[in-house]
Design a protein that fits this description.
Length: about 280
């Protein structure tokens, strides 16, 4: 991909999300393994990423900050400030800083780095690991089209990406697609348990449940039809599907998902506004 050609992409934090992005990026083939660096405080994690991906790993965030053109901050939200302050004197306007931390506002990121460097805030999700991520981003005040191009190139290599008009919308994104994979794992587990309850082996039931979710998602993306139209095509009058759907509506599953997204989005907002009443930022 042109926007990443010849650039080095460095991840500070190679955990669940940073590791997923680095892995998805290398596996996409859009960058060579030599273009990707990961620094982390956990030696075992670094050894694993280096062994599996053939990328350069290091325990020195400052070395990474000197080497990388795109620096992805992928530590827990409460580690973002110390990490930014650690590298602040090294970063320069030729670089693009990307923060994936939930609820850490652009204004704070910019203040902690303390100079006019481009910052982009991104909310990705873990299916980036398998090239099926869903991400949204917003540009900070010093970021421009070059930085948007870099962010889009990176995120589109590992899935789909949208740009949101204002930072507050990243709270909604966090509640929907950032946290969303966990909701869908719950759905898959529950569907499979339903299959087991009706006599299927767990192995068969899990495969059928997961493939059904994958297939339905693909239908929505490929057909571009409204989900209700696709739903109607599955329903036979007085058939089986309408009986199942009736139970889901009766139990309030639709409202439960709407409320789940809202609750997670409000939590992201509370973290962003510093009203973090739960003893941690993540
Ligand atoms: N896990 C998820 O589904 C998503 C996470 N995020 C965001 O991604 C960020 C990372 O979250 P996870 O990957 O889930 O956490 P994690 O705990 O799996 O990964 C964090 C990594 O940072 C490393 N680390 C800690 N301090 C460090 C330091 N000073 N320098 C370098 N590395 C350091 C840890 O050893 C660990 O490997 C968070 O800010 C979170 O809000 C965003 C979207 C989705
Ligand atoms: O649960 C969390 O706070 C993070 C952000 C989105 C997904 N995981």
């Amino acid at each position: 991909m042109q926007a990443l050609a010849g650039l080095k992409v460095g991840f500070i934090g190679g955990g669940a999300m940073g590791g997923a992005l680095a892995t998805g990026l290398v596996r996409s083939g859009r960058v060579a393994p030599e273009q990707v660096l990961v620094s982390d405080v956990c030696a075992e994690r670094l050894a694993e990423l280096s062994r599996v991906l053939g990328i350069k790993t290091l325990s020195d965030n400052r070395f990474l900050a000197r080497e990388a053109d795109i620096i992805v901050l992928a530590v827990k939200p409460d580690q973002i400030r110390p990490v930014l302050e650690e590298i602040a004197d090294l970063v320069h306007p030729g670089q693009t800083l990307i923060s994936i931390a939930a609820g850490v506002p652009l204004a704070e990121l910019q203040r902690w780095v303390g100079k006019a460097v481009p910052v982009v805030r991104v909310m990705p999700n873990t299916p980036a690991l398998v090239g099926e991520g869903a991400s949204a981003y917003v540009l900070g005040s010093h970021a421009g089209s070059r930085d948007a191009g870099r962010a889009e190139a990176l995120l589109s290599a590992v899935g789909r990406v949208v740009r949101v008009a204002k930072e507050e919308l990243l709270d909604a994104v966090t509640g929907l697609s950032g946290s969303g994979p966990a909701y869908i794992y719950l759905v898959i587990e529950a569907l499979a348990e339903g299959g087991v309850r009706m006599g299927l082996s767990w192995r068969d039931a899990l495969l059928l449940a997961a493939q059904t979710v994958l297939g339905a998602a693909k239908m929505v993306l490929v057909s571009e039809e409204h989900p209700s139209v696709l739903k109607d095509r599955v329903m036979t009058p007085a058939g089986t599907t309408v009986e199942g759907l009736f139970v889901l509506e009766e139990r309030g599953v639709r409202a439960a998902f709407i409320e789940a997204v809202k609750a997670a989005a409000l939590r992201a907002e509370a973290i962003r506004l510093g009203r973090n009443g739960k003893g941690g930022k993540d």
